[in-house]
What does this fold into?
Amino acid sequence: MTCAVLTIGTEITRGELVNGNSAWLSERLTELGFEVTEHVSVDDDRDRIVEALRGLSARARIVMTTGGLGPTTDDMTTECVASMLGVPLERDGASLAAIQARFDRLRRTMSPSNAKQADFPKGATVLPNPIGTAPGFSVRIGGALAFFMPGVPREMQKMFVEHVVSAVKPLAPDDRHQIKLRTFGLPESVVGEKLAGVEADHPGVILGYRAHFPEIEVKVLAVSRDRVAARELCERAAQLVRERLGTFVFGEGDESFPEVVTAALRARGKTLAVAESCTGGLLGHLLTRAPGASAFLLLDAVTYSNAAKSSILGIDAAVIEANGAVSEMVCRAMAENVRARSGADIGVAITGIAGPTGGSEAKPVGTVFLALASAKGTRVVDRRLPGERHHIQMISAYGALRLILDEIMQGTP
Amino acid sequence: MTCAVLTIGTEITRGELVNGNSAWLSERLTELGFEVTEHVSVDDDRDRIVEALRGLSARARIVMTTGGLGPTTDDMTTECVASMLGVPLERDGASLAAIQARFDRLRRTMSPSNAKQADFPKGATVLPNPIGTAPGFSVRIGGALAFFMPGVPREMQKMFVEHVVSAVKPLAPDDRHQIKLRTFGLPESVVGEKLAGVEADHPGVILGYRAHFPEIEVKVLAVSRDRVAARELCERAAQLVRERLGTFVFGEGDESFPEVVTAALRARGKTLAVAESCTGGLLGHLLTRAPGASAFLLLDAVTYSNAAKSSILGIDAAVIEANGAVSEMVCRAMAENVRARSGADIGVAITGIAGPTGGSEAKPVGTVFLALASAKGTRVVDRRLPGERHHIQMISAYGALRLILDEIMQGTP
It folds into this structure.
């Protein structure tokens, strides 16, 4: 069954914001089993809104619309739908009371323009807004079922999950299953090459990729005669994907690589200390984005200058002088000393040249050393990373996360 | 003059990527003086591509299209245009040679499917691709001028800047001027409230907002009888915006707040040391994203544990015990001690409760202390920040950046 998404607002057509609503809705609809064939965005113009709605409801069976439900004169979606259907607007008492209650709660006076948000085309089904003032609604337009939601992403998403999914789910073909695998360490083109033939070998399977740099999500979607067969097909294809990508697959679902690593640290009760140079605090930031870092992170010494490497980490200035700050020797000392000074189980260090300046023939931009020290000893790896400064920093921090995970998982059954 | 943007690709309609191309192109076209009225995205389907092109070229004078120019069978944009116009495809020798040269440079063999990328509808104007294999082209479709560019954002952007702008600029009304002001510290709704009436007082001025959390860009666009009048009108309105927003405006153009602060540090030759707790390295990361940080950043001690606050920064454990790690006293000591230990001109510290756990009645989640120590003495501020963990971390780091900028700018003529 085909779906279309219509997003309304001059802020979109002028490029003032990136249209995340279309992508979000399309991803959900695809997961539910629908085929999304078209997105349209129009500015706040009555004729263009009506023309777009007419076209989309003639071509698709379900139309998801966002935007234009606010209290201002720019917000004209509801009126457009009513005039297109040739029905009057009717005020909904329950919606009006909910809007009024919201203003009372915030101790603000409701303006008459907000009352307009309780008006709906006669015959519409109202969709309550769990977290904002603008309710949504659904109506039939010819052969299509059309849903109208607010443009604010959080409100739209909550309304969709709580009130729209249940209305459209019965219309979705119940014949598909999806598994999301999360990878890190391979460029998207190489992931694609490694998975060549998986679709051909598994008719009904579609692979999708989504890059959240530096992670790439591989979506394995299987369509078969029923849900059970789809799940079985999906699991077979996903197993092959796992085999082809090996340890580059670090998880499933929505958990990011830093979340996987920090969860492992917490689960094993291991403590960590970090010494960073070229990443400038990025590894610490990734480790502390999710709550609970105080259980494992004792210290992150961002020793950006050579003097700090000596004074804070106690690395002999002569060693830095002789080897350079970006060297195996200094990286090893950073990891070992930050571990010793903090008393952590694991010490991790990053030193490198993120560029664009600072490179030399012997140590070009992208030269990075990573080290991990534990009771078992110290491991140092060196890398030549491609790309721009931010890429080199991010891949270095992810490389250190990988060392930590490998260390924790070693000797795990 | 009206423009429309068509983006082609099943990865878009399935929601596998957020459609940044439409926003990017629309922002550029709006700046050039065009009115963008419609965006359409369709999947890789011949009929829908043709139908979308037909509709858009009937409704708009300029149509910008991206996607579907690659070498695979999914890529069918060029064929669709040729069949729609009723003209044959013709191979362009110069484009073929450029594609071949690119493969030679990368020492890869060109496959026959890549040769297809040198085919264009007869009569088209070829648009060279400065950084990828797929060239673009432009054709007239009825009364509209249509441009076809690759879907890869970097390639599309470069092609647009180098080959499309010069073709469309003569068609743009030469009657507008834009100034972008960058702000930090106020929520978007408050920025909007403070600027109420600016548009009404300056007919021809349109204000646009774009949030890059935690920064908000205010775009002042003025349209008048000619370019000179537009610039004059724009500058008057921008001046009023600056007055209304005061020091919340930190710059103009595209420079982010961390870039402004680090540029100021470099320009004054001041050195900096940082002590972070709840931000976990985020401030260091913001200071080192742009190159050149080694000129000013000596050290960032992310003392996440109390033990590290004592061992690395030399803060008396009894002081931490008596006041709590999140306290004015400890924050002051962090800033003063990191300055003393590193020998930096300025020491900055952040300690707080980013949540979601760890709050108490006296010190709820969002309680944050910021301190700055310099030769002039130490300043400590406390904040109660709303929002989720990541918001609290980001606003804390920005608050510390603000302290640094205020310190550097003090006594500046």
In short: DSSP finds 16 helices and 17 strands in chain A.
